[in-house]
C-alpha cells in the first residue's frame, strides 16, 4: 500500500459528464454495463480508470470494440485506455460477485438484500471509473432482476423514470438523478421490504415523498425515524434556510453495514440500528441517536452532496460541518446542555486520545494510505468543534451569512476547507489566517490560566498561555468564553469583558485585565467548552465549589465537578492510598439529588464519573491498575456516601420515569436518566434489600427498554447477585431481536472485572453472535476494546483476545478489523511489560499474509 499526499492534488485530466449504468443483478455474477460520456481536460493521452476486484468483459469506445493490450491494459487496480480522443463515449462491461463481498464495500448481498456502499472508494468495486470526489456526473441507472417477487423494490438515486420487462423476461426499473454527483454518492438497493410512506412540503412548496424501507414486520419501528426526518427537514429550513431539492427521499434500513449510515443522494442507506426503534426494544439514547443520524444524513444533502469535497483530504469540510449541524439540531430539540456535555465527553475521552497517539492527524490531514481509516473522531468531532469555534467567534448571524456565501459560491462544486473559510472571511470581514491553523495542525493545545487580584486597584489580571503537545505547532487562535463570579456566586460583567464573554487568545501568552471589582472574583474559563483544548487547572477547592453551585453555564458546573473527581483520582493514584472526596462535593451532590427543582438529566451527568479510558488520557504514562483501583473506589465511595439520597432520588423520579402519558417527553427522559444513574451506584450496595427490590422493580418495567436495560446494566456491572437471572431472562425475552441482543453482548463485555475476557471469548460462540455482522462484532469486541483495564491486563490476555478477532477479520472485513485495532496502537504510553506485549502483537499482525491496507497503515504508524 502506498501513501497519498494532500500537496499532490491535481485536477482530473478527464470529466465524465453522464453515466448510464445497467445492473443485471445476480447473487454471484452481477453484470454491470457502464456507458460514460467522457471529455478530455488537458493533453493527457491515456485515460486511467480505477477498478478493484472486477472481472472485465469488454470495452467499447464510440461503438468500436477495443482490443486488449493494443487499446487498453488491465492492471490490478486500474484500467488504462490508450490514446483516447478529445471527447468520446466509453462502454465498460464487467461482472462482480456480491455474495462473496464480506467487506461490505461496493455492491454486496447480505440477508437477502443487494446493497451498495461507495464512500470513500467503493464505486471502483462496481465498475471502472474516475473514482474521486471531484468528478461530478449525472447518473441514469437501470436495475434488472429475473425474479420480481424476490426483489419488489429496485432502488437507486434520484427519480424513478421508467419500468418494464425485457424480451428475455427480466423486470427492470430506471432511475435518473438530475444533480451531478461524485461516484461515492451513488447507491443501489434491491430487496423485499415493508414500506412506510409520508410526505413533506418544503418552504419552497415542493411536495416530497418520504419513504422508509425496512425489514418485513418492522414497520411500527420506523415511525419515529420518519418524524425525525420531517423534523430535520423543517429545522434546516428554519435555522439554515435550506430546503430539499428532489421530489423523493428514500431511506433503506439494512442489517449488515460497516458504519452508521450513508448519505447517498436521495437514497440514504442506514444501519438498521439507526432507524428501527420502539419503546420496548430501544433505549432513550437509541431514539436520540436515531434522530441525530437521520438529521446528519439529511443535512449532508447540502453540506456534502450539493457541495462536495474536492479530494478526500477535505473530508472534514462535509463531516465536521455536518456534525456541527447535527449537534445544533439535536440541541434545538430541547436538551442543549445535556447534549453539549455528552459531546465534550466524546472529545475528551476519544479525540484527545487519538490526537495524542500515533494516528494523530489534523482535521485536514496531509497524508493518507487507506481513506477508510480517516472517518475518525478527529475529522468528525474535532472538525465540528472547529466549526463551532467559528460560530462562537462570528456569532449566529454572521456565521449564517457565511454559510449563505459558502453555498452561493460553491453550489454544484467540489470544494475545499479553504473555500469554506474564505466565505466566512468575506461574510465577517475578519482575517482567519491564524484560525486556519486548526485545519493544518494536529494535537490538543493546553491552556494555563493565572489570576492576580489587586484590591487596591480593584483589578483582576488574568494571564492565559497556550502550549501544544506537538512542538512544531504555531500558536492557535483560541476563543475562550468566560464567566466571572463574585465569591457569593453572582455573575459579574466588568467593562473589559466583551458582550459575548469571549476572549481571543492568539499569542503564546496574553494578559487580560478587568476593573471595578470590589473583591477577588472567581474566574471560570472555557464556558460551553468554547475550544477543544485542555485546561491546566490550578483552581482551589473553594473556587471549584463556587462554580459547581453558581456558574450560569451548565458545562462549567459539570466540568468543575469533573475536576473534583479527577483531583481525587489523581491524588489516590499518586499516593497509592485510599481515595477521599471533599465533603463539600458530597454535600453538593446530596443537595442536587434531593432538590426537586434541578434538572434530573444534569444531576445524572454530574454523577457520571470519568471512565478509566478518560483518566488514562490524562497521563503521559498510564498506570493501568492504579487507575482501575481509583475508579472502583470512586464509584464505591459515591455509592456509600450518597446511599440515602440516591434511594430518595430514585423514588422521587420513578413516577415520572414510568409515566405512560409523557413517555418520550424531555422530563420523562431526564427522570429515566437519573433513575438509571442512581441504580448504577446503588447496585454496588449488594447487601441492601431496598436496592434489591428496586433493581427488580425497574427490571420488570417491560414497557421501557431504557429502564429494563438500566437495571440490567446496574446489576451486571456491579456483579450484583441478580445479574445472572436477569441476563438469562433478558436473553430469553429478546433472542429474536439481534439489535437488542447487541446490548446484552455489550453489557457483558464491559464488566470491569477480569472475568470479562473469558466471558467475551465464550460469547463469540453464542448464537446471538455472528462474525460476519459488524453490529455484532462492535457490540461484543469493540465494546470490550474500551474496557480499559481488562484490555490492558498485565498477562496480555486482553490483547490476545482482540488480536485473534482482528486476524479473523483482516481479509473478511478490513474496515471492522481496523476499528478494533485502534486501542492497541498507543503502546508507548504503557509500562515495559505491556510495551513488550503490544509490540509483539503488532509485529505479529504486520507479518500476516494479505495484511489489509487499513491495518498496515495503523501498524506502520504505531511501530515507526
Ligand atoms: N459519509 C458516511 C461515512 C462513510 C464511511 C466510509 N468508510 C456517513 C456519514 O458521515 O454520514
Ligand atoms: Zn457524515
From TrEMBL:
<dbReference type="InterPro" id="IPR035414">
    <property type="entry name" value="Peptidase_M1_pepN_Ig-like"/>
</dbReference>
<dbReference type="GO" id="GO:0008270">
    <property type="term" value="F:zinc ion binding"/>
</dbReference>
<dbReference type="InterPro" id="IPR045357">
    <property type="entry name" value="Aminopeptidase_N-like_N"/>
</dbReference>
<keyword id="KW-0378">Hydrolase</keyword>
<dbReference type="InterPro" id="IPR014782">
    <property type="entry name" value="Peptidase_M1_dom"/>
</dbReference>
<dbReference type="Pfam" id="PF17900">
    <property type="entry name" value="Peptidase_M1_N"/>
</dbReference>
<feature type="domain" description="Aminopeptidase N-like N-terminal">
    <location>
        <begin position="21"/>
        <end position="185"/>
    </location>
</feature>
<feature type="domain" description="Peptidase M1 alanyl aminopeptidase Ig-like fold">
    <location>
        <begin position="443"/>
        <end position="536"/>
    </location>
</feature>
<dbReference type="InterPro" id="IPR037144">
    <property type="entry name" value="Peptidase_M1_pepN_C_sf"/>
</dbReference>
<keyword id="KW-0482">Metalloprotease</keyword>
<keyword id="KW-0645">Protease</keyword>
<keyword id="KW-0031">Aminopeptidase</keyword>
<dbReference type="InterPro" id="IPR001930">
    <property type="entry name" value="Peptidase_M1"/>
</dbReference>
<dbReference type="InterPro" id="IPR012779">
    <property type="entry name" value="Peptidase_M1_pepN"/>
</dbReference>
<comment type="function">
    <text>Aminopeptidase N is involved in the degradation of intracellular peptides generated by protein breakdown during normal growth as well as in response to nutrient starvation.</text>
</comment>
<dbReference type="GO" id="GO:0006508">
    <property type="term" value="P:proteolysis"/>
</dbReference>
<feature type="domain" description="Peptidase M1 membrane alanine aminopeptidase">
    <location>
        <begin position="224"/>
        <end position="438"/>
    </location>
</feature>
<dbReference type="GO" id="GO:0008237">
    <property type="term" value="F:metallopeptidase activity"/>
</dbReference>
<keyword id="KW-0862">Zinc</keyword>
<protein>
    <recommendedName>
        <fullName>Aminopeptidase N</fullName>
        <ecNumber>3.4.11.2</ecNumber>
    </recommendedName>
</protein>
<dbReference type="InterPro" id="IPR042097">
    <property type="entry name" value="Aminopeptidase_N-like_N_sf"/>
</dbReference>
<dbReference type="Pfam" id="PF01433">
    <property type="entry name" value="Peptidase_M1"/>
</dbReference>
<comment type="similarity">
    <text>Belongs to the peptidase M1 family.</text>
</comment>
<dbReference type="InterPro" id="IPR027268">
    <property type="entry name" value="Peptidase_M4/M1_CTD_sf"/>
</dbReference>
<dbReference type="Pfam" id="PF17432">
    <property type="entry name" value="DUF3458_C"/>
</dbReference>
<dbReference type="InterPro" id="IPR024601">
    <property type="entry name" value="Peptidase_M1_pepN_C"/>
</dbReference>
<dbReference type="InterPro" id="IPR038438">
    <property type="entry name" value="PepN_Ig-like_sf"/>
</dbReference>
<dbReference type="Pfam" id="PF11940">
    <property type="entry name" value="DUF3458"/>
</dbReference>
<dbReference type="GO" id="GO:0016285">
    <property type="term" value="F:alanyl aminopeptidase activity"/>
</dbReference>
<keyword id="KW-0479">Metal-binding</keyword>
<feature type="domain" description="Peptidase M1 alanyl aminopeptidase C-terminal">
    <location>
        <begin position="542"/>
        <end position="863"/>
    </location>
</feature>
